[in-house]
Design a protein that fits this description.
- By secondary structure, the chain is α+β, with helices and mostly antiparallel strands.
- It has one domain: Gamma-glutamyl cyclotransferase-like (Hypothetical upf0131 protein ytfp).
- The protein contains three helices and six strands.
- A six-stranded mixed beta sheet has the order 4-5-1-3-2-6.
- A hairpin with a 2-residue loop joins strand 4 and strand 5.
- The longest helix has 26 residues.
- The chain is globular and about 45 Å long.
- It starts with 5 loop residues before the first strand and ends in a 12-residue tail after the last helix.
Length: about 170
């Protein structure tokens, strides 16, 4: 039985359940998944920054990650804000992933045009230290959510998120 909500393919910091929970306030069913013709890269950055990944098309490559199941529109809006969709650094695209032998339609955050020149080398979750994760959960995400809630209150409207099933 398919859970309510959408599937979201994650390949970086969002593979950490504690990071996803800090953003959305929800524990998701997460299962291994693969995405064909995409590759995860690192971003060139200053030393000391949390290593950040970005996904870009790469014909013939198979990117492994996880899929979050049952993501509701209001939770997807928070993930969009975390991924800074309004800045154009990342884009949210519909993709088709394979998970547990089945094909699923899922959302995926990919590198926008502004990030393309900064894609470099590989990225792995092992590059993210426990202190980076703690800083993200205790400092950056709460600050981001405060801004998100202020923006929601100022506009007096909820963010419109197109469900995966609509075109």
């Amino acid at each position: 039985m398919k859970p309510d909500g959408d599937a979201v393919f994650v390949y970086g910091l969002l593979m950490l359940p504690e990071v996803v929970f800090a953003i959305t306030g929800k524990d998701y069913v997460m299962q291994d998944a693969s995405l064909l013709d995409y590759k995860r890269y690192g971003l060139s950055q200053q030393p000391g920054d949390t290593p950040v990944p970005a996904l870009a098309q790469c014909p013939g490559y198979l990117q492994h990650g996880q899929v979050l199941l049952g993501v509701l529109p209001e939770e997807l809006a928070k993930l969009d804000f975390f991924e800074e969709l309004d800045s154009g650094l990342y884009l949210r695209e519909k993709v088709r992933v394979q998970s547990l032998g089945l094909w699923l339609d899922a959302w995926c955050y990919t590198a926008g045009p502004a990030l393309q020149p900064y894609l470099t080398g590989d990225w792995s979750l092992q590059q993210v230290s426990q202190s980076h994760t703690e800083h993200l959960i205790t400092q950056l995400i709460p600050s981001m959510l405060t801004t998100y809630h202020h923006l929601q209150a100022d506009t007096g409207a909820k963010t419109k998120v197109t469900p995966l099933s609509e075109d």
